[in-house]
Amino acid sequence: MNPKAITPEQLYGVKSEISDDWTPGIFSTLWQKSNNRANKFNTWIVCDGPVDAIWIENLNTVLDDNKILTLANGERIPMTENCKLVFEVETLDNASPATVSRCGIVYVSSSDLGYDPVIKSWVISRKTDMNRGEEYEKLNNIFNKYIFNMRIFETCQKVIKTTTMRISDIIRVTQFLNLLTGLLVPLVDKNVMATDDEYEKYFIFSMVWAMAGVVEHSDRLAFHEHLV
């Protein structure tokens, strides 16, 4: 659910000033339904939207050690072990320090960490998860040549100046790895190995589409000319 798509009253519930009647909100209803120890399954409530003080502060009693949702009508609904609450946000610009500390969020800047750990973990997974040691050696040599020595991603980013949508460096790398993983599926299914040149072709194809797949046609031509 997107908590910012509705008002706080619609989210948590509202008490009528005239009749004193209580109208439950969407989140409070989901919370009461999900936090039932009789449930034989886990429930995940995902709040996909911006975090700000307008709605997140009402969850302070949920995010602290008590883990109890306190509503305006005095009702208190404790959180059970089979319910999980997840906040999926783009930024924490409008979140208070109290909210960040309660959620246990640790922020690591992409400029500090970089994409090297993502790539290295993927290459290692081909050896451990797929049990393909020979493939690991071939891919590791290619990645060392293009990624870690030539820093080809940085070169491509300098060539591509405009994109149809804003994409972070980590997303580009993830798209590249996803494309490469898909191209290698037939080899894994048949339990065969490609040649060094074939692996290099898979690598370049995936890299080109991951970097230039979201740019305009003119920029794709410039990107292609630069690579050639």
Q: Any overview of this molecule?
A:
The protein is mostly helical. It has two domains: 3-107, Rossmann fold (3-Layer(aba) Sandwich), CATH 3.40.50; 111-227, Cyclin A, domain 1. Helix content is 51%, strand content 11%. The chain contains eleven helices and six strands. The protein has helices at 8-12, 26-34, 60-63, 97-103, 110-113, 116-128, 133-149, 152-159, 169-190, 196-212, 217-227; strands at residues 13-15, 22-24, 43-48, 68-70, 76-78, 83-88. Strands 1-2 form a two-stranded antiparallel sheet. A two-stranded parallel ribbon has the order 3-6. A two-stranded antiparallel ribbon has the order 4-5. A hairpin with a 6-residue loop joins β1 (13-15) and β2. The radius of gyration is 24 Å and the shape is elongated. The protein starts with 7 loop residues before the first helix and ends with a helix. The model has no long low-confidence stretch (mean pLDDT 85).
